[in-house]
């Protein structure tokens, strides 16, 4: 399965743990979760739902609510196999867990994840972003004299965005470690440093 397909599957399973939903509601909630830059079409959602139905991860039933089209509305709900698959996906701590395509969705469901797994994913994400930051800063220094001011400004903006996310992750990691030491969870000092999805 493609990485995007796995991300959609993880998000669907996570959302269906909140309760049964029909396709329209799933798409609306997924688009809110994925952010404005990654809008999900029905052409991506329904093939994933059909695959998940064949894999017995979800099941469908018809809604008893009356609709204007007089067609019964199909509602999806997670199965026991889907719950196990969601737990398996959420327990993965390798590079796919902290890559851009997957991290935001996993983070949205962190409340259902063991603290050690959360820490490993957050630390992996921070390391990956620190590597990206180092590379971008080197490139910025090398190209500052070769590009016009707008291209240089765009590069600086990229550096600042990654620096902001690294600080945010560091605050989250420190809060998680404090939680494991028995201290109460304190939100990071500046919520404006959270990444924008």
Automatic annotation (TrEMBL):
Key words of the record: Coiled coil
Domain Transcription regulator PadR N-terminal: 12-87
InterPro entries the record matches: Metal_resp_DNA-bind_regulator, Tscrpt_reg_PadR_N, WH-like_DNA-bd_sf, WH_DNA-bd_sf
Keyword Lyase: no
Top-level taxon of the source organism: Bacteria
Coiled-coil boundaries: 119-160
Record-linked Pfam families: PadR
Name recorded for this polypeptide: PadR family transcriptional regulator
């Amino acid at each position: 399965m493609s990485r995007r397909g796995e991300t959609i599957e993880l998000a669907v399973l996570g959302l269906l743990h909140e309760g049964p939903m029909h396709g329209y509601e799933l798409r609306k909630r997924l688009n809110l979760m994925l952010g404005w830059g990654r809008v999900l079409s029905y052409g991506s959602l329904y093939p994933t739902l059909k695959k998940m139905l064949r894999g017995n991860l979800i099941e469908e039933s018809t809604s008893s609510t009356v609709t204007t089209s007089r067609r019964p509305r199909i509602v999806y709900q997670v199965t026991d196999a889907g719950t196990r698959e969601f737990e398996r996906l959420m327990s993965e701590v390798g590079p796919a867990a902290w890559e851009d395509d997957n991290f935001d969705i996993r983070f949205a469901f962190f409340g259902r994840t063991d603290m050690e797994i959360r820490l490993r994913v957050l630390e992996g994400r921070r390391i990956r972003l620190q590597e990206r930051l180092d590379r971008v800063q080197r490139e910025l220094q090398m190209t500052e004299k070769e590009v016009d001011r707008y291209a240089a400004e765009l590069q600086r903006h990229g550096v600042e965005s990654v620096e902001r996310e690294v600080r945010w992750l560091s605050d989250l990691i420190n809060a998680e470690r404090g939680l494991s030491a028995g201290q109460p969870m304190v939100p990071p000092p500046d919520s404006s440093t959270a990444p924008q999805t």
